[in-house]
């Protein structure tokens, strides 16, 4: 499946003024999108992503600080026909004759959850006028879940850091007990201490 085709409509429900009864109008899903060559599908997706996230993209301004990847396409629609020998001058043309600004987008690119189409009458440029509006709509829809997931991930990291088992300090090897000097002399086989030897010398001198 490469997406769903939904018939667009403006009215979401019809309400009977007399009875107050409402009749909802559900979305009308048409035949699913079919792709003959998947490579063509991938090329289009990458090109739409570059419109927003490539440094030369016509809607790159809305992708600079985005927390999710956006695919989009900018456009303009002429209100009147420019003669062959004339040029369209946005600064001098009347407001009601300025081009309509168009922008379509979907996000996130990896797993789309929302698609937006913006038309700004006499707005001029799709990238500078219509695209920022679409970004606000997508932020409103996507950011709460993204930020909640980020907070949950941060809590998980803090929990893992707090419960991490620190390596135990290695116990020092037992130190040999100090042997009194008298015992050390006896162990050497002399049987006398320096004090005893001094006493014996004094006795002999007497």
**How much strand content do the residues show?**
15-25%
How many runs of DSSP E, i.e. beta strands? 7
Widest sheet: strand order? 5-6-7
Q: Any idea of the CATH topology of the domain at 37-80 and 94-147?
A: Beta-lactamase
What is the CATH-assigned architecture of the domain at 37-80 and 94-147? 3-Layer(aba) Sandwich
Average the pLDDT over all residues and give the rounded result: 83
How many H/I helical runs? 4
- Termini separation (Å)? 119 Å
Structural category: alpha+beta
Uncertain residue ranges? none
- Specify the overall morphology: extended
Features:
206 residues; alpha+beta; Beta-lactamase; three-stranded antiparallel β-sheet; 4 helices; extended
Secondary structure blueprint with pairings:
Layout: E1 6-7, E2 13-15, E3 22-24, E4 28-29, H1 38-53, E5 71-77, E6 100-107, E7 114-120, H2 126-162, H3 181-187, H4 194-205
Antiparallel strand pairs: 1-4, 2-3, 5-6, 6-7
């Amino acid at each position: 499946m490469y997406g769903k085709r939904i018939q667009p409509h403006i009215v979401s429900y019809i309400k009977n003024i007399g009875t107050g009864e409402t009749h909802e109008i559900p979305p009308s899903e048409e035949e699913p999108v079919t792709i003959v060559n998947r490579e063509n599908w991938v090329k289009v997706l990458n090109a739409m992503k570059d419109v927003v996230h490539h440094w030369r993209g016509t809607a790159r301004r809305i992708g600079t600080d985005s927390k999710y990847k956006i695919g989009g396409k900018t456009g303009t629609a002429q209100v009147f026909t420019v003669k062959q020998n004339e040029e369209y001058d946005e600064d001098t043309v009347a407001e009601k004759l300025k081009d309509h600004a168009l922008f379509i987008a979907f996000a996130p690119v990896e797993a789309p959850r929302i698609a937006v189409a913006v038309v700004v009458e006499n707005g001029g440029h799709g990238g500078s006028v219509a695209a920022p509006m679409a970004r606000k709509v997508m932020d409103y829809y996507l950011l709460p879940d993204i930020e909640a997931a980020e907070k949950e991930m941060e809590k998980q990291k803090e929990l893992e850091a707090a419960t991490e088992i620190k390596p135990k300090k290695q116990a020092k090897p037992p130190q040999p007990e100090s042997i009194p000097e008298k015992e050390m002399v006896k162990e050497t086989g002399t049987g006398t201490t320096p004090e005893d030897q001094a006493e014996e010398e004094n006795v002999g001198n007497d």
